[in-house]
Amino acid sequence: MVKYISLDISGSCTGWCYGEDSTLIDWGKLISKLTKSRSERLSVFHNEIACLMEDFHPDIVLIEKPYLGRNSNVLVSLSKFIAAAEIAVYESISLPIKDEWLIDPKLVKKTLGLRKTKGSTEKKYQSNKLQMVNKINDLYGLRLKYDCKKSKNYNDDDTADAIGIFTVWRMLHDS
């Protein structure tokens, strides 16, 4: 049996899921308190990732690769959270993250057959989020939620992205 943790990392909300072989077992999200300094959020995030690793002891940790078209300040911040996760994984279970475990979000969308939306950047972003939540709900019979007018506390789009990463990895490696 191969155990997986999949992470959709961000500085505000990180979606995660745990699977064994091709079976989705558990999922959730880690919400960062944006009122705290980035240094404090990184420390808390590091500890939360370490707890996930200690709870599940995965053999493979899949991480969504950052989209390089982002604002450079966002990319720098996101890279720090990814580094904190990588350190937490290594410190807690001595598992080095392999380059092939960093998954391109475009590959996930393409493999799951999500359609491209035309229109403004914001319209595309909202459509992608909703499509992913709906796709994951359809595939697994879940009830994940997404409403662009609601907060990260309500929405499950980051969790859906993490499950999407796990799903695509399994699709591509089971064949």
Brief write-up:
The protein is an alpha/beta fold and 175 residues long. Helices cover 49% and strands 17% of the residues. The longest helix is centred in the middle third of the chain and has 22 residues, at 72-93.
Walk me through the topology.
Elements: E1 3-8, E2 13-20, E3 23-31, H1 38-56, E4 60-64, H2 72-93, E5 102-103, H3 105-111, H4 121-140, H5 157-174
Helix pairs in contact: 1-2, 3-5, 4-5
SSE ordering? EEEHEHEHHH
Separation of the first and last Cα atoms: 17 Å
User: Biggest sheet, in brief?
Assistant: 5 strands, mixed
Summed up, the domain count is 1
Total beta strand runs: 5
CATH-derived topology: Nucleotidyltransferase, domain 5
- Outline the low-pLDDT stretches: none
Computed CA radius of gyration, to the nearest angstrom: 15 Å
Structural class from helices and strands? Answer: alpha/beta
Number of helices: 5
CATH top level assignment: Alpha Beta
- Into which percent range does the helicity of residues fall? 40-55%
Supply the key terms:
five-stranded mixed sheet, globular, alpha/beta
Give a verbal description of the structure.
The chain has a five-stranded mixed beta sheet with strand order 3-2-1-4-5, with helices on both faces. The protein has 175 residues and is an alpha/beta fold. Helix content is 49%, strand content 17%. The radius of gyration is 15 Å and the shape is globular. It has helices spanning 38-56, 72-93, 105-111, 121-140, 157-174; strands spanning 3-8, 13-20, 23-31, 60-64, 102-103. The protein has a single domain (3-174), classed as Nucleotidyltransferase, domain 5 (2-Layer Sandwich). It contains five helices and five strands; from the N terminus they run E-E-E-H-E-H-E-H-H-H.
